[in-house]
Amino acid sequence: MANLMSFNEEPANTVSFANILAASDTFKVLFKEGMALVEESAGYLDGPGRTESKTLSRLDSLSYASESMRLTTRLMQMASWLLLQRAVNEGELSPLQAASDKHKVKLSLQDLATNPDQFARLPARLRDLCERSLRLQNRLIHLDRLLYAKPTDQPAPLIGPRSQMVRLEEAFRSPSA
Predict the structure, then answer these.
(1) Which of 16, 35, 50, 127 has the fewest CB atoms within 10 Å around its CB?
(2) 121: number of Cβ within 10 Å
(3) Model pTM score
(4) CA 29 centroid distance within chain
(5) pLDDT, tens digit, 9 for 90 and up, residues 125-137
(6) How confident is the model at residue 1 (pLDDT cuts 50, 70, 90)?
(7) What is the DSSP letter of 58?
(8) CA 31/CA 40 separation, integer angstroms
(9) What number of other Cβ atoms are within 10 A of residue 89's Cβ?
């Protein structure tokens, strides 16, 4: 049995914090935050961002294009993940279906494309959107790992005084024993 189990691997007597969190009001807030960030970013990139990008030097303009593409990709991945999870919460998909559809939703860690000095020269609003999207991405990846972790072959950790004694004995056992 794994330390961390996925949706479809929970034994009947185990309560998963991740599953409770994913179906809670906290998730609804996270969902709204993610979708609002998508809308805000789209509004910026299609409006003021276009104007700001035209005033940049050639090199900064290239960095702007790279970061805006990364931002858009990151936000689309997160929106897809949030929508999939919301479908589970609303009963449109079972957790098992979501786990099998998971391969269609690539939630991967994407960092900034430019170095810190170059990033600092980009418009403040783009930098803010990128930084907020990175923080949200980290939260979603953490929740995703909790929800969809693959079971390992490792047994669950022993709990209690007896297990602590066993661990101590193993730690101090001589290599030749």
Answers:
(1) 50
(2) 14
(3) 0.72
(4) 15
(5) 999 999 999 999 9
(6) very low
(7) H
(8) 14
(9) 17
